[in-house]
Write a structure and sequence with these properties.
Largest sheet: 2 strands, antiparallel
Helix content: over 70%
Strand order of the largest sheet: 1-2
Number of helices: 4
């Protein structure tokens, strides 16, 4: 039974990736698909960031004395005001480093 699941999930994964490489795929996606594709990076990165900030060792971390929360808030403020990925990363990581050394 497990082999059927492994082979089936492999075929589904292969098919999902292969469909974009075939000539059957249209050159231009419909407008609704283009709009949905613009939201994918935000959804994926938000999930990764939130899990890194609020989950540690498989459990929710308390908000008090959690330097990741303060660094994430500062990074969010920097991102909002500057719209610069480099400044956001530098500010958030610098804040996390400083808060980790103090705590």
């Amino acid at each position: 039974m497990i082999w059927f699941l492994i082979i089936g999930s492999g075929l589904i994964t292969f098919g999902m990736r292969f469909i974009f490489l075939t000539p059957a795929m249209p050159r231009q996606l419909p407008d609704w698909a283009e709009a949905a594709m613009r939201l994918v990076p935000v959804a994926v990165l938000s999930t990764i960031i939130i899990s890194e900030v609020f989950i540690s060792d498989g459990a929710l971390t308390p908000l008090e004395n959690n330097p990741r929360v303060m660094a994430a808030i500062l990074a969010g403020i920097i991102a909002f005001w500057t719209k610069s990925v480099l400044l956001t990363l530098a500010g958030g990581l610098s804040c996390l480093y400083v808060l980790s050394q103090v705590a």
